[in-house]
Design brief:
Elements (H helix, E strand, L loop, with lengths): L4 H17 L4 H13 L5 H33 L5 H9 L5 H7 L6 H10 L4 H25 L4 H24 L3 H17 L6 H4 L1 H13 L23 H11 L7 E4 L4 H15 L5 E5 L9 E3 L2 H10 L4 E5 L5 E8 L8 E9 L2 E3 L6 H7 L7 H8 L12 E3 L11 E4 L6 H11 L7 E8 L2 H5 L4 E7 L15 H24 L7 H15 L7
Amino acid sequence: MDFHISHFGGSIATGVAIVLAAFVSEDATTITAASLAAGSLLDVRFAFLSAFAGLWAGDLVVYAVVRFFTGQMQRLGWLAGDAKLQALNNLRAPKEWALALSRFFPGTRLPAYVAAGLRRMPFCHYAGITALTAMLWTAIVFVGVAIFPSHATTAATRITKLSIAGLGIFGLLLIWRHAGVRVQALLQHVWQRLTRWEFWPAWLFYAPVTAMCAWLGIRYQGLSLPTIANRNQKNGGIIGESKIEILHQLMRNSPEATAPAYLIAAGEVEGRIVRIESVLQLHGIAYPFVLKPDVAQRGAGYHKVRSPEDARDYLRIVTQPLVLQRYAAGPNEAGIFYYRFPGEARGQIFGITRKRFPEITGDGVHSVEQLIARDERARFLKNIYVKRLGADAGRVPAEGEKVRLVDAGNHCQGCIFEDGWDLYSEKLREAIDDISRPIAGFHVGRFDLRYADDEELRAGKGFQVIELNGAGSEATNLYDAKNSLWNAYGTLYRQWKLIYAIGAENRKLGAVPRSVLDVWRDWREYSARASEFPIAD
């Protein structure tokens, strides 16, 4: 390694500090090492090896400690008794693939490693798997910090808190006399998270989609063809498109089917409050109404405004241009993924999603947070719901009282998605076609709409479009819990194949795709702006 001699001693000391710090907080230490390398304060190779060594050493120590303490507890009689021994014997060692995956799922790593030690997984298997995954995880963190350096400090702080909490739990498990039973229950929860793929982190779920797009880019001879799938949207609707521009096109062509929306430009809070009051008065919009960033993804920053004070509080946080939209009460919401090839007169519906807004029912005894934790599905998104509810999460709702957990129709915000193909009809297809055709340059995307009655929607009536998303949107019926992971990826492949094919057709008509680098820059610019968005309602 090409270290300068004057910094050699300092580098060695820093490397040792990184290894030791990893025993307290592995991921926060890895992010710190990556940040030092990204800032040219430490040689990237030395930083990488130090971070990897710290992670792997910690893995091996967990295994060794659990093996040692299990033997000690058995010798001391702490695990004596048929019931306790049976519980320990029933605790299965994780499969090799499950042990490997646990590296990439927050909260699952420690339980998996403890289980491997308790059930005496062969040391060579354990050491080899943890070495490979530690190296891969370290590489992912280093690349991520190099790309998004501004998020590294925040991530490190959060991970440190999680790691300290996990260390405390680990200590309790070791001294608890019924450790085997407790670990088994914890591992069951971990297993449910692993098998319910709809709750996987986005970076993991979409990794195969990246490979799909790479293949389709080769097949259609253009990696960035989706950027011209819709010629009326920036980047085809992949990233950076303006919601208000699209909504204004809908309002001009199909005003009766569009929830009216107006731009609130960036500026001083009080000046924007005056603009909001003017829009409300001029267009007859009453509270509640919706404010959302003009450029945003996956419902980020969506807010249902209930009062002038509520609007003022929101404006103090979000300084970006906003869309003010009349609130469409629904109460039902659906997502309709539509496509039409250039030159074709007739478009098609690819998929329909029913969006169900989850509720918990009060019992007069437990708080909202406790009821969420007891719910079969909501418990997996407890942190999102509790953060959104704020102080209301500690309230004890009356018996039979319904508490709605989310208002934004986005899966990542906690909305439940179900396949809605039963809503399909030829009249609905014609209605969506009639809205789409007058929009010059639009060919593929998802209409998010609210409506009151299923039969009325099937008749192609009684709905209002609240958003039209472009090539970056999805046929969200794939997130139906009844869907298999294989079927979900099959849906995504067919969808992206359509997008690439439409982009290829537009290229024949003279459209020029943007470069991958340009799209990447737009993504980074959006990511920097989105850091100020509050959690969606």
